[in-house]
Specification:
Elements lengths: L1 H10 L2 H22 L13 H21 L2 H6 L1 H18 L10 E3 L2 E3 L2 H16 L9 H20 L3 H5 L4 H7 L4 H19 L4 E2 L2 E2 H21 L4 H20 L7 H23 L3 H16 L2 H8 L2 H10 L11 H12 L11 H4 L11 H34 L3 H25 L17 H21 L3
Antiparallel strand pairs: 1-2, 3-4
Length: 481
C-alpha cells in the first residue's frame, strides 16, 4: 500500500500543483490586503477573513490528500451517484436555505455557511464525463445530445431557482467541452449569435431612423447576412446567393426611393427578404436533398423569434437589479451611485495602482472600503491597486499558463472519461476568469462569480480544489498504465 501511495505522488503533475499553490498563496495575501484596516483582527485570527480563509486552505490540503489517495476508478464508478447526491442537496437548498442578500443558496449550520452550487461544478463534470465515455457514445446523436443537455441544465436550473444567476451561468462553460467532443458548430454559433442579437437589440432599442427601429433593423440585417454566408458554405452553385443579394439590393433601392415620399419601415423589408430567402432554401433542400438548408431556415426562424422576445425576457423575467446592471454595462444608464457603483469604484482602484501599484497594504481605495465585495467578487481590484499593472498582468499570465496546462494534460489522456473531465475543468476555470475580470473592469455585467483561488470563500475554494485535484488524480493514473 505504501508503494502505491508513493507512486501516486511521484506521478502527479507537480507543475500544475505549483501553479495551484502560487495562486492560493497570492489569493490569501490579496484577501489580507482587502481586509486590512476595516476587518483587521490579526491575519491568523479565525474571526477575521484572512484567518478564516487560512483554515479553509488547511482543510483543502486534507481534501487533496483524500482525493489523491482514492483509486482513480472510484470517480468513474460513482460519478452518477455523486451527481445525484449534489442535485438532491441543490433542491433541498432551495427550500431550506435562508434569504441572504436576496438568494437562497447558502446552507447555514451554526456559524458555518456552505454554498452547494460550488460543488455542483465538479459533480456535473463527473457525470458528463461518465456519459460521454460510454461505449458507442456519439454526441451528434439527438438522444445523446439531449441527455448531455439534461445533465448540464438540471443543476443550472436548480441554482437559478436559488436566485443565483451568476453561479448558474457558469454551467454554460460545459458547452465548450461539447464543442471539443464533436458538437456541431451550429450550436456554438447560435449561442454567440444569441448574445450578439441581445446586446445589439438592447443597445439600440430606443434609436429610431424615421419610423424604422434601428435595433431591429441591425439584428435582422445580421440574420440575413448569416443566412447568405451559410448558403455560400453549403451551396457550390453561387447563383441562388447572387440572385438573393441582387434582390436585397433592389428591394432597398426601391424602399429608399419610396421613403422620400412616404415613411417606410425597413424592418418589414428585411423580414420579407428573410422570408423569401427561407422559401428559396426550402426549394433547394427539396431539389438537392440537402438537409443542412433546413438548419439555416431553423436558425432564421429562431433568431427572429428570439429578437422579438428580448423585450419580454428583459422586462418580465429579469429582476430589476439585473436589468439595471445590463443597462449600465451597455451604457444605456449612468448610475454611478447605484448599479454602476461597484464597477466605477473598481476601475478607480485598478487605475490608481498605476504601473507598479501602491504596495502591499497601501491601497487607499481598499483600505477605506470604497469597493463593495472587494475581498470576494471584486478581489482583482485589490491586486490592481496594490500591485499595479505589473501585478494584475502577472495574475492574468498565471491563469493563462494554468488553463493552457490543463488543456495540454487533457489532450494527453488515454481515456475519454479523463479527457472530457479535464476539458470540463479547464472550461470552468476559463469561464470564471473571463467573466470575473470582465465584471471588475466593466466589460461584462456584474453577475457575482468569484475569481478562482483569489476570492474569499471556503465553498469556492473547496469546489475549485476538488474540481482540479480529481483531474490530477485521473492524470496520475494515466502514468500508471
Amino acid at each position: 500500500m505504501s508503494y502505491r501511495k508513493e507512486s501516486i505522488w511521484k506521478k502527479v503533475d507537480w507543475i500544475t500543483v505549483l501553479l495551484y499553490v502560487v495562486m492560493v498563496v497570492a489569493g490569501w495575501f490579496s484577501i489580507c490586503g482587502a481586509s486590512y484596516e476595516y476587518d483587521y483582527v490579526g491575519w491568523f485570527d479565525p474571526s477575521g477573513r484572512p484567518g478564516s480563509q487560512l483554515i479553509w486552505i488547511g482543510l483543502s490540503l486534507v481534501l487533496i490528500f483524500i482525493i489523491m489517495m482514492l483509486d482513480s476508478n472510484f470517480y468513474n464508478v460513482f460519478s452518477y451517484l455523486i451527481y445525484a447526491f449534489i442535485i438532491l442537496v441543490l433542491i433541498l437548498t432551495i427550500f431550506l436555505a435562508p434569504d441572504i442578500k436576496g438568494s437562497h443558496s447558502w446552507l447555514v449550520i451554526g456559524s458555518l455557511r456552505i454554498q452547494p452550487a460550488e460543488f455542483a461544478k465538479f459533480a456535473t463534470a463527473l457525470a458528463v464525463a461518465k456519459l460521454m465515455s460510454a461505449y458507442g457514445f456519439k454526441l451528434r446523436t439527438l438522444r445523446n445530445f439531449l441527455l448531455v443537455l439534461f445533465l448540464i441544465l438540471l443543476p443550472m436550473l436548480c441554482v437559478l431557482l436559488q436566485n443565483e444567476a451568476g453561479s448558474a451561468l457558469v454551467f454554460l462553460a460545459f458547452f465548450l467541452v461539447l464543442y471539443r467532443e464533436g458538437m456541431t458548430g451550429y450550436v456554438l454559433m447560435t449561442g454567440i449569435c444569441a448574445v450578439t442579437f441581445f446586446v445589439l437589440s438592447m443597445k439600440y432599442s430606443d434609436v429610431v431612423a424615421g419610423i424604422t427601429p434601428l435595433g431591429e433593423l441591425i439584428v435582422l440585417s445580421l440574420i440575413l447576412a448569416i443566412m447568405f454566408v451559410l448558403m455560400r458554405m453549403i451551396q457550390r452553385d453561387l447563383t441562388p446567393v447572387k440572385l438573393l443579394l441582387a434582390l436585397t439590393a433592389v428591394a432597398h433601392l426601391i424602399a429608399g426611393l419610396v421613403s422620400r415620399f412616404v415613411p417606410v419601415n425597413f424592418v418589414w423589408i428585411m423580414i420579407g427578404l428573410i422570408a423569401v430567402s427561407s422559401a428559396c432554401l426550402v426549394f433547394l433542400s427539396i431539389k438537392n436533398w440537402v438537409w443542412h438548408y433546413l438548419l439555416v431556415i431553423l436558425f432564421a426562424v429562431l433568431s427572429v423569434g428570439f429578437l422579438y422576445s428580448v423585450d419580454y425576457v428583459f422586462d418580465e423575467i429579469l429582476e430589476p437589479h439585473q436589468q439595471m446592471r445590463i443597462k449600465v454595462a451597455l451604457g444605456l444608464e449612468n448610475d454611478p451611485s447605484g448599479a454602476g457603483y461597484n464597477v466605477n469604484q473598481s476601475k478607480i482602484a485598478i487605475g490608481s495602482g498605476g504601473l507598479l501599484g501602491k504596495g502591499f497594504l497601501n491601497g487607499t481605495q481598499t483600505k477605506l472600503k470604497y469597493v463593495p465585495e472587494q475581498d470576494t467578487d471584486f478581489i482583482f481590484c485589490t491586486v490592481g491597486e496594490e500591485e499595479g499593472f505589473v501585478g494584475a498582468s502577472a495574475v492574468l499570465i498565471l491563469f493563462a499558463v494554468f488553463i493552457v496546462r490543463l488543456i495540454n494534460l487533457s489532450e494527453k489522456q488515454k481515456t475519454v472519461y479523463a479527457r472530457v473531465y479535464g476539458y470540463s475543468v479547464a472550461s470552468v476555470f476559463f469561464f470564471h476568469l473571463l467573466i470575473n475580470i470582465g465584471m471588475v473592469t466593466g466589460l461584462t455585467p456584474v453577475i457575482g462569480i468569484p475569481l478562482p483561488f483569489f476570492s474569499y470563500g471556503g465553498s469556492a475554494l473547496w469546489g475549485f480544489t476538488i474540481l482540479l485535484f480529481i483531474f490530477l488524480r485521473l492524470d496520475a493514473s494515466r502514468k500508471e498504465r
